[in-house]
Amino acid sequence: MGQVQHRNRHNTWRFAGGARRSDRKPRFDLIPFEFLESVAEVLTRGAARYGPYNWKRGQKDFFLDAWNHAFVHLQKFKEGDRSEDHLAYLACNVAFMVWAVKNRTISQEDFGHPR
């Protein structure tokens, strides 16, 4: 990145040459490459088997089931199972749930106990 001249009180960076940019954007550079690579490998396998972005076609029950799949992968990792990258599969299921919540397919309330 270029040399930063200064930052003002509005969290705007001024670069050499006069360009400015807000620092309000998420720092994707902070995500470990190994994490991204592991998740991408799982999603690539899923795309080959089910089609790209198949998970986006899921409805509420699909995303609620992702919760269970996440825990299965966590447990298998804890048990020492090395048959697949359980943490990457866990991360994918969590990513699916984050996407579904942000896109209002599910809500936090959907995870409540039945009455």
What structural keywords apply?
single chain; 115 residues; mainly alpha; three-stranded antiparallel beta sheet; 3 helices; 3 strands; extended
How would you characterize this protein structure?
Strand 2 (12-15) and strand 3 form a beta hairpin. The chain has 115 residues and is mostly helical. It has three helices and three strands. The chain has helices at residues 33-50, 60-78, 86-102; strands at 4-7, 12-15, 20-22. Strands 1-2-3 form a three-stranded antiparallel beta sheet, with no helix packed on it.
Helix fraction? 40-55%
Task: Please state the overall shape, judged from the principal axes of the Cα atoms.
Answer: extended
Beta content comes to 5-15%
* End-to-end separation: 54 Å
Determine the number of helices (DSSP H or I, runs of at least 4 residues). Answer: 3
Q: Which residues form runs of ≥5 with pLDDT under 50?
A: none
Mean of residue pLDDT values: 89
Q: Helix/strand/pairing class, anyone? A: mainly alpha
Strand segment tally = 3
Main sheet makeup? 3 strands, antiparallel
* H/E element order: EEEHHH
Radius of gyration: 20 Å
Strand order of the largest sheet: 1-2-3
